[in-house]
Amino acid sequence: MKDKFERHKQPWTPTEIDKLHTLAKKGLPLKSIAKALTRSEESVKARAKADSLPISKLH
Predict the structure, then answer these.
(1) Each residue of 32-52: pLDDT tens digit?
(2) What's the rounded Cα separation, in Å, for the pair 14 and 16?
(3) Positive/negative CA dihedral, 32, 37, 40, 41
(4) pLDDT category, 7, cuts 50, 70, 90?
(5) What is the dihedral of CA 10, 12, 13, 18, to 10 degrees?
């Protein structure tokens, strides 16, 4: 299984944050954003919440 992420607990870079904002504004679902950023869904969800970004619930 490839559910493990080597980047566990790594800080977000400004580039990753910009990409998160861009993808969220495009309406991409959480799973797609996590894959694009090579981050866990939980990590993406937590960062989006911290930045007050709405994430699409679609899968």
Answers:
(1) 999 999 999 999 999 999 999
(2) 5
(3) negative
(4) low
(5) 150
In angstroms, the CA 44 to CA 46 distance is 5
**Model confidence at 9, in pLDDT bands (50, 70, 90)?**
confident
51, 21 in Cβ contact below 8 A?
yes
Report the predicted TM-score, pTM, of the whole model to 2 decimal places. 0.80
Beta partners for residue 29, in sequence order: 56
The three-class DSSP label of residue 23 is: helix
Distance CA 57, CA 59 (A): 7
